[in-house]
Amino acid sequence: MRAHPLRNRRNVRLYRKRFYRKRWFVYSVATAVVCAVFGVLAVLLFLRPYFERAQQFDLSLINELEVASVIYDRHGREVGRLFEDENRELVDLDDVPRHLIEALLSAEDSRFYRHSGVDFLGIARAAYLNFRAGGVTQGASTITQQLARNAFDLREDSMDRKLVEAFLANRIEQQFTKPQILEMYLNRIFFGPGAYGIRSASRRYFGKEPRDLTIEESATICGLIKSPVRLSPLRNPEASLRARNHVLNRMRIDGFITPDQYAELIAKPIVTRPDPLVTRYPYAYEEIRMRLLEVLDEVEVKRGGFHIFTTLDAGLQRSAEEVLREQLARVEAFPQYEGQTLEEYERIVVQARAEGSPVPTPTYLQGAALVIDNETGGVLAMVGGRNYAHSQFNIAMRARRAAGTGFLPFLHAAAYSHGAHPGTPVLDEPIDNNRVMIGGLVGILGEWGAEDPSHLHEMREIPARQALSGSKLAASFRLAESVGRQRVIELARRAGFRLSEEQARRPATVLGQFEATLAEYCLAYSAFPGGGERPERLQLIRRVLDRDGREIFRAGSETPRVRVMDGIAAHQTWTGLRETLESGTAAEAWAQFDLIAGDIGGQTSTSYGFTDNWFVGSSDKVTVGVWCGFIRPRAIFEGAFSRETVMPAWVGIMNEVAVDWPPAPLPPPEGAVRVAICRVSGLPATDYCYDRVPMSDGGVRFVSTAREEYFRPGMEPEGSCGVHRRDSDLLATLMQRQRSVAPTETEGPTRAQAEAVVPQAPLLIGVDPYQSLQPVLARPEEEQVQAALPVMRARAVGDLPGEGERLQLPRPGRVPLLED
To answer: Which of 278, 306, 312, 283 is nearest to 293 (CA)?
Structure first.
């Protein structure tokens, strides 16, 4: 019997094998699995080098950041930061506002809390958007990946770098918490020139701490991350505004701000308050860094994070820079100045950058200034040049230039230490230059460089003091020869000038024909008001604290000092420097440039050929030095004297110094003998020692030429001034002063009411109250102040009679009448 066809067909269908049981399917799946396994193995083998490379990085170094060291002035005020490459200051995450974190997440990694270092969903989204845009418009690097890239300098733009970065980011996520990763990222990331880390960026762009940032300011800073230079609000405010608004929009989408807040915030402009601390006092900063290397390891200095307390005074530093800048601009405006000006060079720089051509080396007039504490050698202000961006060479500390006539005080100090004194007569007549050899072998010494050409040579003997105050080269050179030039060299070396043996043998060296730095000059000059001692070296750093606030360095409480000369020689030289300002080559400092009143001394200095101009001077507390010239030595201009170029700047800085360090009279040297000396003759002054000074109304006023001087015991000058004689006009003036004294309340006529009898011939013997025979030596200044007109007495002639005896005197002759 035949089976039913349908039943047979159903039976066949009922017992047919499922497709997944079929051999061909099993073989296909097996093949796919094998391929997948081999594919995975291949991928693992391919990725293994990148994985292994990621394992080689030491994650303990992720916090090894270069942190800017903070610099403080002598008052504890923060004045700037010191860093090698990255201006960074660390901040705790707790000091960062929540809206800043939200702005960061919206701008860079909105899924930060939902991935383990690599955001695969973000990668897919970025790939899709880039495909649609036809180019790379979206990035997919997470905050952790950016941290890995920056911490371990994974800078190359390649797939290899991205793979290593991904593995490294995963390691970071496994070892650190999310808050730790955020804090490390914010402290490390680059936010633009001079701004590494969120604190530096906050202060750089808005002049405030991160905790004080507003929402829109936070969005501005976070908008910088993709392109810190191009999007800087200081350089490109329009692009920065667009980037900020994009971040604010992302914050709205992520729910961190409301739509109303968004509308309000995008309407606000970007208001920056750039922090100038990054670029202030760069010459001083570089010197601080070099001094720091003397006490700390180079690796430690580069790592930074120190708190450096310095000797600088921020206010004085600003004033010194401003005063010097203004004065050098005035010098460049002199009709005889023919060199490049700073303004011209700045125009050249702008043009060169616009054309993309190399910026030429500046050739404009340079200058430097230095202010130091006489007692400690602490640098109160340092101006190493006119513009650090144009030249990083610190002229004040490094430039060795021709010392010039500013060295004359040390020549005189050597002479005063070995038998001479300010009243020692020296001949001021021309000297043939082949005897000294300054610049050449012909001509007359000093004819090229007299600050006051009208008194080039006095053609007579003058006191050594006048040779110093008038910068008399011939007279000073004769003084050096009289005591021995080698003694001058020895004292110069003790003062801190570096003189070679060859220079020591040259006659011109004693007149400043050698090279010195402004720092050497200031240290050396501090010995005059310092009683003959100077600080061993300049000091810039008082103490240093590390990141944890531990003190790791402190300058000694007592500054080592060097004995240059004895106290008497120092004081004698100091009084000569004071006279330079009163009546010498720098006399204009008072009347023309308004130098403050006080006990101040200084010296003009012009080198041969007018290549270098200096002015160095001191009060009892502070020494100030100023220099100007060209980096490549050449004449500033023909006839460029320091009293016209740098002395005005010196006066301006000294006036600023006097605000906090008012000058006070120097105490007299111990053991010295005080004598009133006539500054014209150099001999003991008499009551006749006055100079006639014409007045604008045609009259004449008398100015005393007597001044106090201190001498070594036994070396006081003998005799009295023979230059000033009795002057009838002077006597009349003195008598008028005597009559002007108010009468006392005592009975009877007073000295002021009595008429003076003026003897006309040497007739009296014995007591001579009217100084008819012999002038009386002038008394010290403070004693003259106590009495308006002291009673003048002649020296007694012969022995006075004993008690009960009478002195037989001839009848005096008749006194002739005074002539009309």
So the answer is: 306
